[in-house]
Write a structure and sequence with these properties.
Pfam families: adh_short. With 111 residues, the protein is of the alpha/beta class. Helix content is 44%, strand content 18%.
């Protein structure tokens, strides 16, 4: 049993670097994970998804949502798609600097 079994996490900036490593760790520990990145990072996002599957996640445990996080519509899409797919949101990890300085849209929601 993983530390995050049954939890749902969004990891912004998860197509590279520490965001990528964090998304993979959440998946390894049993969380359902939403991978986010820029629209031109499809290949990177798919690689992260594959790595999540390699550490034990199921295909249905991983969601990819790409877009420019500075756009409030993309912020809403990330949340809405996550909740629509997994039924809730437990954890939000921001590795996108813009998102961290403008996080209030995420905090006003309840799942």
């Amino acid at each position: 049993m993983g530390r995050f079994d049954g939890k749902v996490a969004i990891v912004t900036g998860s197509t590279s670097g520490i965001g990528r490593a964090t998304a993979i760790l959440f998946a390894k520990e049993g969380a359902k994970v939403t991978i986010t990145g820029l629209p031109n990072e499809t290949a990177n996002a798919e690689e992260v998804k594959d790595e999540c599957l390699n550490v034990g996640a199921n295909t249905t445990d991983i969601l990819i949502v790409l877009g420019d996080i500075k756009d409030p519509e993309i912020q809403d899409k990330i949340i809405d798609d996550t909740i629509s797919t997994f039924g809730k949101l437990d954890i939000l990890v921001c590795f996108e600097i813009y998102m961290c300085s403008n996080i209030s849209p995420f905090l006003v929601r309840s799942t």
